[in-house]
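User: What would this chain look like folded?
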Amino acid sequence: MVSTEPTLRKTEAEANGTGEPSGDPRLLVRQQGLSGHLQDFVRRVRGGELGSLPVIVGLIVIAIIFEAETGTFLTPRTLSNISVYIAGPGIMAVGIVLVLLLGEIDLSVGSMAGLSAALWAVLSVTHGWDDLLAILTAIAAGAAVGTIHGFFFARVGVPAFVVTLAGFLGWSGMQIWVMGEEGTINIPSDSLVRDFGNFYFSDISAAYSLATVLTGGYLLALLRDTRRRQRAGLPTRTRGEILLRTGLIAVASFVTAYTLNQHRGLPLALVIFLAVLLIVDFVVRRTTYGRQIFAVGGNAEAARRAGINVERVRLTVFTLASTLAALGGLFWAAQAGGASKSLGSGNLLMNVIAAAVIGGTSLFGGRGWVWSAFLGTLVIQSITTGLNLMNMSSEIQYMITGAVLLIAVVVDSLSRRTQRTAGRT
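Assistant: Here's the prediction, encoded as structure tokens.
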């Protein structure tokens, strides 16, 4: 059978009479079969394109170590708890990923999370507002705060570090002011916010249905991408690669569904977190706006000369980041059992930023992906949970998390250096 995969009519290897191409290997179409994919993977790793490999290997090592030490780390109960705990900081980390793609930083997400929880609690619990309306108001406040940050950064020209540092201080003060004389406002038993951390779809069909939707959606996305590339005359994935990728997603999804059903079922927190990831990932990878974010982060002046409204992109990214911080703050309040004057302080900001970087988003801008928020948050929460099971003190957790963050940044720096050496940046 004649292959329909596009091939190069004449490679550089044919031109110079050698057996190996001397040009960029990425410009060569991979040979069909498993060996072709393996060779392509090795070329990418040698060229510094590590992708999610380090963090996936790290997660496997973490699971093996903690399971060997505790014997309970990989139980359904522990894994289900981790899936709930990652939702709040994970949603906030998605916003940080967008900011990091611009090559900037947002230091206000922790205080914005606390302010959001305070606004919701005061409006809903103290003043008796409808719970949903109070939630929407708190999230809208996050959007307004992000727009203010974006205006001063993009329009006025104040460095993002300074703007968001001022926001960190100012919104922390407003959080205390909003709470008033109330030190803590507990979440009522019938609150929607409580459901963010405590509601589970107990019917086993819910988790399996979600796994089916994720697998089917991924397959359809691959087939759609293949058709688009065929119409454009570009190299496409082979049928074997499509089936392999879909099979891996199916295994991961259904094993996760089975594990969750062994405890309490599918957590609502995980469903919302996945929905945020999928929506933002689609925007970043499949829309013109998403490509503009990468362009501005890679080279703002080049993006401006290409006709991109750099100021608009920067302003909207900070608006999105603060909006997601406000939403994440409500999940954080659900886990804490209520809003308080200190909610969002401590190490929340550092953990959220660390999650984005550990997951694979570059601190230097223009490189990363939305799912790094999921992977990085999963790494940090796995470490925290494992050390808690071992009854380790909080200072040990901080030191280990700091070491993991340093390793992630070192890997990113070495990867960039390798790609420059290979001529791929």
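DSSP finds 18 helices and four strands in the chain. If you want, I can go into more detail on any region.
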